[in-house]
């Protein structure tokens, strides 16, 4: 049994070929797709965060809106780039959104991927400390965020406050109990997966990973997941961790599917995501359900994970994206024992 959700990058473009032509379209359609996914029986609605781009950016207003319109589905990110974040303000936003959603947030955070502008986090007022890299800064921000989410007081109260304070040191409010256990780290390497396990974060592994062995993505991811679980056990955490992988999966069950994705099945690709960093990009799975079931049964990383995030082509519109999700839930998941 697996939890199955969708992952949207929230692209928008004014092109007449797009069903998502504005930022407003991207946001409102994201809410409607989450509602539709819940009605179809999907388990999660996840959103990517990119800055300086015609994509979804600030996630918490969207997460809160989805939380207010749904009642069961998990609501998450994959991922928030921590180079851009004020950890304390983020803890306030996350606490508020989680309380609105009734404790359904599943926040994926990470160093992030290469952005649209050079060192974009500098425009947000952040820069690495002396001797730090931007990745170090992201991990530092993440650790502060995790500490604040514990809900322990740390701030000295004003002796003459405008409103009465509870006794002792003060914490960031609103605090949402349990959210600390629902933070995920989007890891591109085995080493950062181990680091995340030691800190008690769940693991997200996407359709892209730094190439560490030359093996296909699913094999490298499976090794990463096993390293994560070994580190989790060694750290002595008492709860079971969660692990998600993302995949592009399109069952071809109509002529429209065949027109869009009939030639989309592919092999993994290797390339450079940034200078000096070779990565492996995962293939798309697009075929008739019977063939898809056979292909996906060989995916070692999906077998290792408890959560599968389906990347959806959001610019094709809410109805078509809901159709893609439904086709996986109806024709593929039961045959593989995911349902």
TrEMBL record:
Q: Which Gene3D superfamilies match?
A: Luciferase-like domain
Q: Any idea where the Luciferase-like domain is? A: 9-255
Q: According to the lineage, what is the superkingdom?
A: Bacteria
InterPro entries assigned to the protein according to its UniProt record, in alphabetical order: Bact_Lucif_Oxidored, Luciferase-like_dom, Luciferase-like_sf
PANTHER family linked:
BLL6902 PROTEIN (PTHR30137:SF15), LUCIFERASE-LIKE MONOOXYGENASE (PTHR30137)
Its recorded name reads LLM class flavin-dependent oxidoreductase
In its UniProt entry, the species of origin is given as Chelativorans composti
- Which classification does the entry list for the species? Bacteria, Pseudomonadati, Pseudomonadota, Alphaproteobacteria, Hyphomicrobiales
């Amino acid at each position: 049994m697996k939890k199955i959700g969708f992952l949207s990058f929230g692209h928008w473009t004014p092109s007449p070929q797009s069903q998502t032509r504005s930022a407003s379209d991207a946001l409102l359609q994201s809410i409607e797709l989450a509602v539709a996914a819940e009605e179809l029986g999907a388990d999660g609605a996840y959103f990517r965060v990119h800055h300086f781009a015609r994509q979804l950016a600030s996630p918490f207003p969207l997460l809160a809106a989805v939380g207010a319109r749904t009642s069961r589905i998990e609501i998450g990110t994959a991922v928030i780039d921590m180079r851009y974040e004020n950890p304390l303000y983020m803890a306030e936003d996350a606490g508020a959104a989680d309380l609105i959603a009734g404790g359904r947030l599943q926040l994926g955070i990470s160093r992030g991927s290469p952005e649209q502008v050079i060192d974009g986090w500098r425009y947000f007022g952040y820069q690495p400390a002396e001797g730090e890299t931007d990745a170090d800064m992201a991990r530092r921000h993440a650790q502060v965020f995790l500490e604040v989410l514990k809900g322990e007081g740390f701030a000295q109260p004003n002796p003459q406050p405008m409103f009465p304070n509870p006794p002792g040191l003060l914490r960031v409010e609103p605090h949402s109990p349990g959210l600390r256990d629902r933070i995920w780290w989007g890891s591109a390497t085995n080493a950062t997966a181990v680091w995340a396990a030691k800190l008690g974060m769940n693991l997200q592994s996407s359709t892209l990973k730094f190439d560490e062995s030359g093996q296909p993505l699913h094999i490298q991811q499976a090794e990463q997941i096993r390293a994560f679980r070994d580190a989790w056990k060694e750290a002595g955490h008492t709860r079971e961790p969660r692990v998600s992988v993302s995949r592009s999966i399109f069952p071809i069950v109509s002529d429209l599917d065949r027109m869009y994705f009939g030639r989309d099945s592919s092999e993994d690709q290797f390339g450079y995501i940034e200078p000096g960093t070779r990565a492996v990009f995962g293939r798309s799975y697009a075929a008739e359900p019977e063939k898809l079931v056979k292909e996906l049964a060989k995916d070692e990383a999906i077998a290792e994970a408890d959560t599968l995030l389906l990347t959806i082509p959001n610019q094709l519109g809410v109805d078509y994206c809901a159709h893609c999700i439904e086709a996986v839930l109806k024709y593929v998941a039961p045959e593989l024992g995911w349902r």
